Amino acid sequence: MDDYLIFAPDDVDLARSPLAATIGAETYVLGAFNPGLARLPNGNILLMVRVAEALKEPVEKEHVHAIRWTSAGYVRDPHPLSGVNMSDPRQFDVAGGAYRMLALTSLSWLLPVELDAEGRKVVAVHYDKAIAPTMSYQDYGIEDARISLIDGTYYMTTCSVSAERHGTSLYTSSNGLDWELKGLVLDHQNKDMILFEGKVGGLFTALTRPLGELYLAYPEQSEFLAGPSINLAQSPDALHWKPVDAPFLRPRKASELARKLGGGSQPILTDEGWLMLYHGVETKAKVGVYRTFWGLLDKDEPWRVKRLEDGKGLLEANPALTAPIAHQLYLPTEVVFTTGLVDGGDHYIVASGEADLACRITHIPKSRFA
């Protein structure tokens, strides 16, 4: 396999950030990571990079500030220091509610970065095509794009974050660079909705990963563990979704993926069935260890898993890649978070977020999935 970082925080020009005109404070890039991936009509590759932009000085006097979008521009919301827990640099707990409440230390927006056809060099950074919040349900940011090309149209799911809800929004495009927001398609908390790159039985099909406050226990003799798992849903139009009744990928006692599972790349159709890369999390420290695994699904009934490689990870975090920018790591992590793949001929070009900091490209021979 061939591994390298292709885009990192210092590659972002914050003078061209959507926040620059109105935030009225100095910011920095907390991370440029978790990129959606697609092949553009001209043959080049699109990375849709999540840029997490944070305040350099979030604390002023007796308050810590979070960034929020409004129709009039970006503002800084103060929260009393006496009521927050700031042990996690990505977020802080806000006291005073009946439920646990968080505020984010950054606001995320999406930056289209165009690579050459092999994904080895940056051709253009399309700041004029950046995707930033435009609706109140996105006022704390837009995160983790996933892109699928279906019948000539690009479909991009994103996680829209706000106090109103934590749902999934859909964008579409005819060229991969000019996007139209179609609105919310999942209303509940769901971090990893990813459309299959093609229809199943005439229906759009997607991976979902709903979250909850608690999970009901399996019987002691079950091979499965309760917790976040990957489900399937189908739709006639990509807007209105019905969950598939059959269960899909669940944490198993015999696997390292005991903490949770979630989608990674858009499933693509091969001669053997739908190939999907996904992430599994091993419990360790605050964040856990994120690895990429893979599975092969039946062509016509994708809830039927033909093969599941959930033992040794396909990809693991590679500290050597981030060593030159280790001073920018804001949390010790063992995280590789795969977010897309495209066909490269005799290999796949795979995009991931590395250490919640930068964009990683990996070339994986197709023979690895034989």
TrEMBL record:
GO terms for molecular function: hydrolase activity. Keywords: Glycosyltransferase, Hydrolase, Transferase. InterPro entries: Glyco_hydro_beta-prop_sf (IPR023296), Mannoside_phosphorylase (IPR007184). The keyword DNA repair does not apply. Belongs to the glycosyl hydrolase 130 family. This is GH43/DUF377 family glycosyl hydrolase. It comes from Sphingomonas vulcanisoli.
